[in-house]
Amino acid sequence: METTIQPFGASFLLYDTDPEEVVTPEDLGDEERMLMQAFSDFAEREVAHHLEALERGDADIGLELFRKAADLGIFMAEVPEEFGGLDLNVLAVTGMCSIRAKLGSLGSLVFGHQGIGMLPLINFATEEQRARYLVPCMNGEMLSAFALTEPGTGSDAMNITTKAVLDDAGTHYVVNGGKQWITNAGWADIFILFAQVDGEHFTAFVLERDSDGLEIGANERLLGQHGSSVAALSLENVHIPVQNLLGEVGKGHKVAFCTLNMGRLKLATNSASGARAAVEVASRYAAERTQFGRPIGEFGLIQRKLADMAARAYAAESVAYRTSGLVYQALEAKAGNDRPTLDDKLAMLSEFSVECAMAKVHTSEAYNHLADEAVQVFGGYGFSEEYPPARMYRDSRIARIYEGTNEICRLYAQRAILRRSWSGRLDLSGAAQDQTGDSLSSVSYDEALGSSSRHLDIANLKNVYQHLVAEVCAEVQRERMFDAENQQLMSSLADIAIEIFATESVFLRIAKGFSNGGVDGMQLYEDLEQIYFVHAVDRIRQETNEILAALFTDLELTEQLRKLDEWLPFPVGLIVYRARVAKVLLQDEGLPVFP
User: Fold this and answer.
1) Is the distance from CB of 335 to CB of 239 less than 8 angstroms?
2) Which of 142, 171, 200 is the last residue of a domain?
3) Do 174 and 214 have their domain in common?
4) Are residues 126 and 216 in the same domain?
5) Which of 12, 197, 412, 414 could pair with 490 in a Cys bridge, judged by C-beta atoms 3.0 to 4.6 Å apart?
6) Do 228 and 355 belong together in one domain?
């Protein structure tokens, strides 16, 4: 069997990846790092002392900072050079997104505009629309919002009921309906609005704020992200000029999916940066706070907490950059020396939509969990709004909801994997038949990572997944696979795939570091990898038990569990690993910045 191939969507489930082919934060070049530093300096210089004002919902401060962000060039990032933009590639944009954690709730305003607010204009606007809307958005003269969600749809976004009908003169679409949970709604100058033309053709438009018949509701009272504006829209006989049609009638799904898949890619890095920030504030506090005559970071339970947090943050970062790298490298290979076309972007985002969805789930849950753990490290102070964890805890929660809830992302990822398998694009059934208890692929990373056999461990985790898919497909009729009563099976399979992707991402990142001569200082990262691997295996074992217990009973279940135990590794004690990791975290006040 071929062991290394050109990556394609979900191919990681069958094939090994050469460490040199995976993208990691350490791969960022001088230009990307300078850009990140400029944005980081902006956050510390301009935003940090306004975080409390933003928490109070001070719109004037938020909009002033929005304009300063425009002056810095944040909104030029993905705009083509012919319109005065920077035309940054996917990897550079990923690095830029890593500053979000430093922006507090201003990040919702900035990236809501830069991402889902502007991408439809960048990718689908006509030349006249770009001149009228995109350039002012790039310069901070206009603020854009993405208006898709409705009160009755939520995750079922393609079944919106907002209706658009072309008037008798053929000059305007008359739109009626309502939108909900629209980020930046209270301040936006334009909206990327989705409606059903004639009640059946899903279509995108550019809607101006001052349009007659458009009413914008009061800002929602949110759990977190207090510096943002989220409100509902009401549209009653709103007339949108035909010139404001975005893309083609009935092709609005292209606008939505291209934007949301890229949004998930960016959100993964946003969330990973939040996870790293949670480790940083918790480590700094644990080093400074004394109890019983010594810093609390010297106590075993705090060391355990910090080390587990760091391992999960490192994994989230590895997943985010690996996923961005898949899209980046595919686009570079497709376009060659030319600029990637819209069709290239659509194709590559669709190709790796499974990884985008999984990255969004993995990183957002890491961010939310680590913010919660930071509260715990701070103890009573963590429950006070005077300290960072309280805001981090509130702000992190939305990451598991927007850009598609994590439940929907799980179901989407597993559904896409199965459909690719059934179509022959991803031969899971063939792989399952080849299982012998050994690795399905034989690429060895021993030269890169000493005597480690982790590649064999990861290959065996893939065996577990392939076996479970085969058993589920044998017990559940294909036409019933995605019914509501089987969602728990789909979710458990997705969680196993996500943990495999994350574990392999960490391993490949470290293997690449070794192969590039980075032996000194690698003990920390090997320890992080060991800690995360053990947690991933525990999660895989848990979800495996869920699936098998739902499909089998008694002797059949016993035999299935015995077979799976041949692939799942023995438990490893982590006390020594955690102590070593915690020592570094306390000394460096968080995870060291990648070199």
Assistant:
1) no
2) 142
3) yes
4) no
5) 414
6) no
Residues 222 and 276 occupy one common structural domain: no
Dist CA 303 CA 586 (whole Å): 9
Residues in contact with 586: Cβ distance below 8 Å, sequence separation at least 6, in sequence order: 283, 286, 287, 295, 297, 306
Distance CA 237, CA 490 (A): 42
For the chain, what is the domain count? 3
H or E segment and range at residue 583: helix 575-588
DSSP for 93-137 reads HHHHHTTGGGGTTHHHHHHIIIIIITHHHHHH--HHHIIIIIHHH
Which residues, including other chains, have CB under 8 Å from residue 391's CB and lie 6 or more apart? Answer: 51, 55, 104, 105, 224, 385
**pLDDT value of residue 1:** 33
Structure tokens at 443: 């690429």
What CATH number should be reported for the domain holding residue 328? 1.20.140.10
DSSP classification of residue 64? H
- Residues annotated as catalytic (active site), given as ranges: 403
232 neighbors 178 (Cβ within 8 angstroms):
yes
Q: Strand pairing of 230-241 and 172-183?
A: antiparallel
Taking CA atoms, 284 is separated from 250, 270, 289, 376, in Å, by 53, 21, 9, 14
Tell whether 528 is covered by a domain. Answer: no
Q: Are residues 129 and 205 in the same domain?
A: no
Residue 479 inside a domain? The answer is: no
Q: Do residues 286 and 334 share a domain?
A: yes
Q: How far is CA 235 from the centre of its chain?
A: 32
Looking at residue 337, its pLDDT comes to 75
Residue 4's pLDDT is 57
Provide the pLDDT for residue 440: 37
User: For each successive 10 residues of the chain (595 residues), what is the average pLDDT?
Assistant: 71 93 92 88 94 92 95 92 89 87 91 93 95 96 96 82 97 97 97 96 98 97 94 98 97 91 90 97 98 97 98 98 94 83 87 96 98 98 96 96 93 97 88 49 42 81 96 96 97 98 96 72 91 97 97 94 92 96 96 78
pLDDT at 519: 55
Residue 488 lies in a domain: no
In the block, residue with structure tokens 């990822």: 413
Separation CA 595–CA 589 (nearest Å): 16
Query: Which pLDDT belongs to residue 513?
Result: 87
CATH number at residue 76: 1.10.540.10
Residues 62 and 79 in one domain: yes
CATH number for the domain spanning 180: value is 2.40.110.10
DSSP structure class, residue 246:
E
The rounded distance, in Å, linking the Cα atoms of 398 and 111 is 14
Instruction: Output the pLDDT for position 446.
Output: 46
Residue 129 falls inside a structural domain:
yes
What is the length of the chain? Answer: 595
Return the pLDDT at 35: 85
Structural domain containing residue 173: 145-246
Residue 434: what pLDDT?
A: 59
Point out which residues pair with 147 in neighbouring strands.
193
Rg (CA), the chain: 24
Residues 153 and 199 in one domain: yes
